[in-house]
Write a structure and sequence with these properties.
The chain is of the alpha/beta class and 561 residues long. 34% of the residues lie in helices and 17% in strands. The chain contains 18 helices and 29 strands. The strands form six sheets. A nine-stranded mixed beta sheet has the order 10-11-13-16-19-22-25-28-29. A six-stranded parallel beta sheet has the order 12-15-18-21-24-27, with no helix packed on it. A hairpin with a 6-residue loop joins strand 4 and strand 5. Helix 10 packs across helix 12, helix 11 crosses helix 13 and helix 12 crosses helix 14. The longest helix is centred in the C-terminal third of the chain and has 20 residues. It starts with a helix and ends with a helix.
Length: 561
């Protein structure tokens, strides 16, 4: 702010936000409020945006736990106190000057501020101001600055929250996946090479990720070029780019950053794995664990609740013999006389991080609030997915999440089924059926990919027997040809056919379905061949003859050309 003041580049009102903010608010109402306040009070210097958030909400960190005192008639900010204080002192002059005051404990500062041009100059005039909190308190309390005033604007419905610690990081990530921040959602804000497709149950997958042999249950986003092997279960997770996840892995409520490797038979529960971390085979990472950049744990070990592993600083070069029990470095030594190899595994890389509070060396000069926030239980457990004990390892039992499908998906699918059934019964013009489906798509705000996925499922479910399928495709084929003109659209159809066949135990019918769709020009041979390389093993076996026939036909076509 002082640099802005020195440069003198700001000459009118401006919006100031922190870099860790996620919001979908429309600023026009707040700007109008600020302008109205300025017209009524020439000393109005700032309008702060507060969001109505009840105490205890996971997006409300300890630093945001404040008691706000304001004039209910004008929303002028009178006092701004942290609620973690054991007592509150209010001067009598405050009560003498205001007949009515509201004391609000349900407001969170979003740190979105509409400022007048001379706000940076106030930082230059008062060198004891270190941050915006001290600036706000100085304006409303300090006698030298009390000639100016601050007002607030309260958000009721829009979303605004900061990612200022692990607890808010987990909460905001969950809100984004559940689309509380719309239109700031992954499928609207990803680069073309990583374009996400929003699927049912809050699952976001890019085109480059096709986890046929894994089960992604709900509320999960997976980054591009990530590979997920068979019999792996993932629920309520954020998984970054270029990760490698092995066989029989179970991950719940966790945040896996880029280029993380998780070997076979691991369990990750409510943990953060930073970029480059490796979890070796048979390792369990328990709730609250944090693996920092490039750390390695395992194999065949169980990390205790809240274990934090780091390679930061020179300690990561030490071995267990150097970290002797009488070492002066309490962050390297273990208070229980247990070596880090016993805790982190034989192939570990990194050391256990212990704060001063953990080792009993806390200092009065430390930031108690920051320490309390760091050691706070940051992760948000969801009752439907807190444990994987209910997931059976048997091949004949597939877990079904208890969360219902979103109403938009259920409603749209129902209307597609009705349109298909009624249209086929009277052989209505297929273009009119397509008009009905498109109208339902817009009514339920369904993506093009989901429209095609639900339409494919409706076609498969509508046909009573496989021998009747050619008749249905002859009728509905022209509509699907219009909807699926490119590779990505046809991959959606192929994916849904595979999902349906596996769910309904109709794997033997897959070859005939593909053959009919190919003959009716709904699917191109190149897309079928590409899809088959990654299909489920049982599906591949059932369509093997058809694939061989397609390849031979392609070769003959190439030779003739």
């Amino acid at each position: 702010m002082r640099e802005l003041s020195d440069e003198g580049t700001i000459r009118g009102p401006f919006i100031l936000v922190t870099g860790d903010l996620i919001s979908n608010m429309d600023m026009r109402a707040a700007m109008e409020t600020h302008q109205a306040n300025k017209e009524k009070d020439k000393d109005a210097i700032m309008t702060c945006i507060f969001k109505k958030v009840m105490p205890g909400h996971p997006t409300r960190g300890l630093e945001d736990d404040v008691v706000v005192t304001l004039n209910p008639d004008t929303n002028r900010l009178l006092r701004f106190r942290n609620a973690n204080s054991k007592r509150f002192d209010y001067d009598l002059e405050l009560f003498n000057s205001h007949d009515v005051m509201d004391f609000r404990y349900d407001l969170m500062n979003t740190y979105i501020m509409i400022c007048e041009a001379h706000v940076p100059a106030r930082f230059t005039d008062h060198f004891d101001i270190q941050d915006m909190d001290s600036f706000i308190k100085g304006i409303i309390v300090d006698e030298e600055m009390c000639n100016e005033s601050i007002y607030i604007h309260i958000l009721e419905h829009s979303y605004a929250a900061r990612v200022s610690n692990l607890r808010t990081y987990a909460s905001v990530s969950h809100d984004i996946i559940n689309r509380w921040t719309y239109p700031v959602v992954p499928d609207n804000n990803s680069p073309p090479e990583d374009q996400y497709i929003y699927r049912r149950r809050g699952v976001y997958l890019p085109n480059s990720v096709r986890p046929y042999k894994a089960v992604i249950h709900q509320n999960t986003i997976v980054g591009s070029e990530t590979t997920i092997d068979r019999n792996t279960h993932i629920v309520d997770c954020v998984i970054g780019r270029k990760c490698e996840i092995g066989v029989n892995v179970k991950i719940t409520n966790s945040y896996i950053w880029d280029e993380v490797t998780i070997k076979n038979d691991c369990v990750i529960d409510s943990a953060v794995l930073c970029s480059g971390a490796t979890v070796k085979q048979g390792t369990t990472v328990s709730a609250g664990c944090i693996l920092s950049y490039d750390t390695v744990v395992g194999p065949n070990t169980v990390l205790k609740l809240g274990t934090r592993v780091t390679v930061a600083g020179p300690r990561h070069m030490r071995n267990d013999s150097e970290c002797s029990n009488d070492s002066e470095d309490t962050r390297c030594s273990d208070p229980d006389n247990v070596s880090e190899t016993d805790v982190l595994g034989a192939d570990h890389w990194g050391v256990i991080y212990r704060s001063d509070e953990d080792t009993g060396d806390s200092s009065d000069d430390g930031d108690d609030l920051e320490r309390a926030e760091f050691n706070r239980k940051w992760y948000v457990r969801h009752p439907d997915c807190s444990e994987f004990d209910e997931i059976s390892d048997s091949s004949d039992s597939t877990p079904v999440p208890s969360d219902p499908e979103p109403d938009s998906d259920v409603g749209f699918y129902g209307e597609v089924c009705d349109s298909f059934k009624a249209g086929y019964a009277i052989q209505k013009d297929i273009d009119n059926v397509l008009i009905e489906v498109n109208a339902s798509k817009h009514a339920y705000n369904i993506s093009v990919a989901d429209q095609l996925m639900h339409s494919t499922r409706a076609l498969l479910e509508l046909c009573p027997e496989i021998k009747e399928f050619p008749k249905y495709v002859q009728y509905f084929g022209p509509m699907f040809i219009k909807l699926a003109k490119d590779r990505d659209s046809q991959m959606v159809i192929l994916d849904e056919i595979e999902t349906w066949a596996l769910e309904k135990s109709r794997i033997p019918d897959t070859q005939k379905i593909l053959h009919i769709l190919y003959n009716e020009d709904v699917l191109d041979e190149s897309n079928i061949l590409e899809w088959s390389d990654s299909a489920d093993n049982d599906i591949q076996s059932s369509i093997a003859k058809f694939i061989v026939w397609l390849k031979e036909a392609e070769e003959e076509s190439s030779e003739s050309d």
